[in-house]
Write a structure and sequence with these properties.
By secondary structure, this protein is an alpha/beta fold. It is built from 15 helices and 13 strands. It holds the Pfam family Response_reg.
């Protein structure tokens, strides 16, 4: 029996269609939330970080952590494992991860015109039109970002991505379910030996990608009959050494018979391949209104393989803390608006797990005592010795890792 993948817009009656199909076919349901839980257990990543892979908002620290790429790899492995269990309805973003070579999948898109979606939002959830539009636009932005991540396609409803696109403002739930069941028995989506082999290849590729991701690598993986191809899409200074490391990791995976590496179309772009080091701080937020100083500091930390982002005022820093997940902050005390002392108070009150290092050129002994009482990890004076600061950052990072171990 075949698999059904259903990707849908919000407020398009997709849940009702899924229930109808499950009642008729007896299929089990695989959702994004189930796969997020599985991916979190496999990788050790918090489920919130895995779930963020579906969001259009990517962490400012992602160039250093590769967390989105790692999350996608985790989700692929979770989905590939679920597909091995047999027929299912895969409902959500994750269904788009199924490779086109697995032909025994009926790929369905459920969407509707805005007036229909607004009506459903009001009837089903009692939302006012303004709030409903806000949620629709936010979810559609996530959908567009997801399609672009996977296919470099900005239209998530593009007919080329699916076998069927069902406009729910033109068909009712019963009719939509009937159309899916009608197409499910067609020869084009029947299981074949070639399609089942493609499913096995998907599982092997996902397993290899997960193993590489665990070691901090971000490369594309394809598999065919035990032959694995790794594509490096960013420049690297010592390509041969990287290739040897990748082959060593991938070659140790059961079922892998051979490993080949190649450079991708983006290899000659300006982006540099950066292996994520789990031992080094990679989510450092620098807060200082002296732009030249803080930009230079950020660059010097990056040269030491420490990932950092910059905020130039207290308001921006607190906004970033609210929507992202810095692990360590380096803050100046004297800034216009919300100063460093207030940032320290608010961060320790709302996100006590964040370690805060105060780096100032104008502080007093009384300031130092107050900062340490408020929970600062360290208090340092400008001009700072970069090696000393690096050591303090490593100690803060080690404290965080020990706490989460």
């Amino acid at each position: 029996m075949s698999v059904i993948s259903i990707f849908s817009g919000i407020f398009c009656s997709a849940d009702a269609v899924v229930r109808d199909v499950m009642d008729s076919t007896g299929y089990r349901l695989v959702t994004d939330e189930q796969l997020v839980r599985m991916a979190g257990k496999t990788s050790g990543m918090p489920e919130s970080k895995v779930r963020r892979a579906f969001s259009a908002k990517t962490s400012v620290f992602n160039p250093f952590t590769h967390e989105k790429e790692c999350s996608v790899a985790c989700l692929r492995l979770a989905l590939a494992t679920e597909l091995e269990k047999g027929p299912a309805v895969v409902h959500g973003f994750s269904g788009l991860l199924i490779p086109a070579a697995i032909s025994h999948v009926l790929r369905v898109c459920i969407i509707a015109a805005i007036p229909y979606r607004l009506e459903q939002a009001g009837v089903v959830q009692g939302l006012a039109e303004k709030e409903a539009l806000k949620q629709i636009h936010a979810r559609d932005a996530d959908s567009s970002s997801w399609a672009e991540t996977l296919f470099s396609a900005k239209d998530p409803w593009d007919k080329a991505l699916y076998d069927m696109v069902l406009p729910m403002n033109r068909v009712n739930v019963a009719k939509a379910g009937a159309l899916i069941e009608e197409n499910l028995i067609k020869d084009a989506v029947r299981r074949t030996n070639a399609s089942m082999l493609a499913q096995k290849d998907f599982l092997l590729a996902a397993t290899v990608e997960m193993a590489l991701s665990r070691e901090g690598h971000d490369v594309s993986v394809a598999a065919r009959g035990g032959e694995v191809a790794l594509t490096i899409n960013k420049q690297v200074l010592m390509l041969t050494r990287l290739e040897e490391e990748l082959k060593s990791i991938a070659g140790a995976i059961p079922g892998v018979h051979s490993v080949e590496t190649q450079v991708g179309k983006d290899f000659h772009q300006a982006h540099i391949y950066r292996k994520h080091s789990f031992e080094m701080p990679s989510r450092v937020l620098l807060v200082d209104d002296e732009r030249e100083f803080v930009q230079t500091l950020s660059e010097r930390l990056q040269l030491r393989d420490m990932g950092s982002a910059v905020a130039y005022d207290g308001e921006s820093a607190l906004a970033l803390v609210a929507e992202d997940e810095p692990e360590v902050m380096i803050i100046d005390l004297k800034m216009p608006g919300i100063d460093g002392m207030e940032i320290l108070k608010q961060v320790k009150a709302t996100r006590p797990q964040i370690e805060v290092i105060v780096l100032t050129g104008h502080g007093s002994e009384a300031d130092r005592k107050q900062c340490m009482q408020l929970g600062a990890f360290a208090y340092m004076q400008k001009p700072v010795d970069i090696d000393e600061l690096s050591d303090i950052l490593k100690k803060a990072h080690e404290k965080i890792r020990t706490f989460h171990a």
